[in-house]
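Ticket 4471: requesting a sanity check on a complex prediction with PMV. Repro inputs:
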Amino acid sequence: MRLRIRVSIRRCWPAVQHDKEAAFSHSICTVVRVEEPVFWPGPPDFHNLTAKLSQGGNGTCTCTTRVLSTKTLNHPPTSWPKSLELLPAVDSLSPLFCENCSAQLRTDGEAQAQHWLALTASLCQTLDRRRLLPLPLAPVPTTRYHFEIHHHLHPTPPDDSFKATKEAQMIEFADTPNGSSNGVVPPVNGNGMHHRTLSQRRASAPMAPAFMVSAPGKVIVFGEHSVVYGKAAIAAAIALRSYLHVTTLSKSRRTVSLRFPDIDLTHSWDIDNLPWAIFQQPDKKKSYYSLVTELDPDLLAALQPHIDEVSPERSEEIRKVHRSSVTAFLYLFLSLGSPRFPGCLYTLRSTIPISAGLGSSASISVCLAAALLVQLRTLSGPHPDQPSEEARVQIERINRWAFVSEMCIHGNPSGVDNTVATQGKAVVFQRTDYSKPPSVRPLWDFPELPLLLVDTKQAKSTAHEVAKVGKLNKTHPKLVGTILDAMHNITDAAAELIQDNTFDAKEEESLRKLGELMTINHGLLNSLGVSHPRLERVRELVDHEGIGWTKLTGAGGGGCSITLLKPNASAEKLSKLESQFEAEGYQKFGTTLGGDGVGVLWPAVLKNGTEEDEEGGMEIDVEKFLNAQGTEGVEQLVGVHGDGGEREGWKFWRVESE
Ligand SMILES: Nc1ncnc2c1ncn2[C@@H]1O[C@H](COP(=O)(O)OP(=O)(O)O)[C@@H](O)[C@H]1O
Ligand SMILES: C[C@@](O)(CCOP(=O)(O)O)CC(=O)O
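Returned structure tokens:
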């Protein structure tokens, strides 16, 4: 079957349409390429497009698209802007950033030409900006867009009304988050004028397809707490993950809503009542690539009334949890968004136990940051052929904002949790200077360690434990400094050991050396006062059986422990230990280390072994997502891994090993 795809580019001067022929089989993904002269800052709006069956079909095909990659080619386009007056009005676009160099373009209206020049200069990269004057002496680069088109065939409806509107629906766009028109843009006729007859008008559609993002939890294998003081830590992603579903509402619905059932939180705000003015002040405004290393007290104060209105009838304990999540969301939403942001519903579910030291807050922070950046179209990819370097830039962008969210949730984070939740795998992390990005060294061959993960079910607060160590450090700076240095040396030794060619995760001697480092690390954490009797009890039980080495993981004060099991640990002893854990109210987790970091499912359609798979997949709507039962239900519905490995649909920014 062949489909004709018509791609029309909005907010691009001059307005352009492309007709593309592409062969499709029933309900698959395909890639279409469009080349477009770059006359405009930022990617054009290709958000939704519909494709028309050009032959042999008796149905329509609704497609959603995503820009897979953009590549700048240095050959001139076929048309040129003739004079500066012809440049389009730019005041409807805010903020303006160059996609290539991330430079913020001027928005002061002083001279619109400046935008164009700055953009062109940055795209030409090697060209001296001054040589671009006067226009159009410089070669204007062309951007090549790759689209991924998900299309779903719908049978032709029996009634004729469909035929009447079919043509009008042929080119249909969703609005961009920063856009000023409503969700449906009519076709452009030969004069560049928009027109659509009354009979062809339709109710507003949602402005973008629903999509999902997901990020893993983590275990810190070495270096928690000391990492807050600039020492190195080793952390690895785990298979437990958070999943965030984003629905964009139609233009008339000006609310932003959170549904976070794990913490029993539901709340909506009127977007137009949020304190945009202060977040948009030139001295406060941040861009999607900013490195924010501290929260702005004025912005926090402006958010306070909107945080205070959440869950007024709940207990103080619950409100505290709600406040953390809401502060993180609102801070990100107002920092990254704009008053023209569309109404949205964010629904979050996580399989990571909360406040157990497995990085639940970092995982949701990464999801929130990634979702907002995806909505703003500031991320390229992910796609399987994305160059590592490009993937790295996207990961860095998400990570920077996830760190801001982490600051909202627990005050003084080191950034290790959000880094591993964004990047996945296992990393050696160190942040010596908080005004700069951290050093992150991936451990590509992180071994498959035989780990037992035990949740004490003793809730703790990271903020509280971190503050406790801070206080101890203030009182005994020299002594605590020595302990933190020793922890750093342990991490160094462990990284060296793991990367040594002779290290074998199945061999006793290798594991013994690593296990001893874990024991020492735990002892030092205990000396800082962040263990807990229930954590000590796990150690006691494991030590009694003599089958492994145990340390707390995460902030401590409760939460989880990890035990590195000896290779010869007998099944009998293990099962005895597990029964004892169960009897004493502990929960054992089976998890693998070193999985993928942040992933995107765009649109929210997955194959789930249901009838709908025949039609291209099953759309994950909010209802299905909320109705999924427990961890198993969530994983079955949207998990990044199905029974047969990685699920088709989820995509990850992957930084490969050099
Ligand atoms: N599934 C979730 N839904 C909503 N908020 C969450 C979720 N998981 C974590 N959080 C937020 O993160 C906080 C827990 O952070 P923290 O104490 O650092 O624990 P952890 O060690 O699990 O990261 C919670 O109080 C809540 O604000
Ligand atoms: C104690 C600390 O090192 C790790 C905290 O991990 P968690 O929040 O318990 O998952 C704090 C940090 O690194 O920000």
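Notes from triage: Residues 1-206 have pLDDT under 50 and may be disordered. Leaving this open until the requester confirms.
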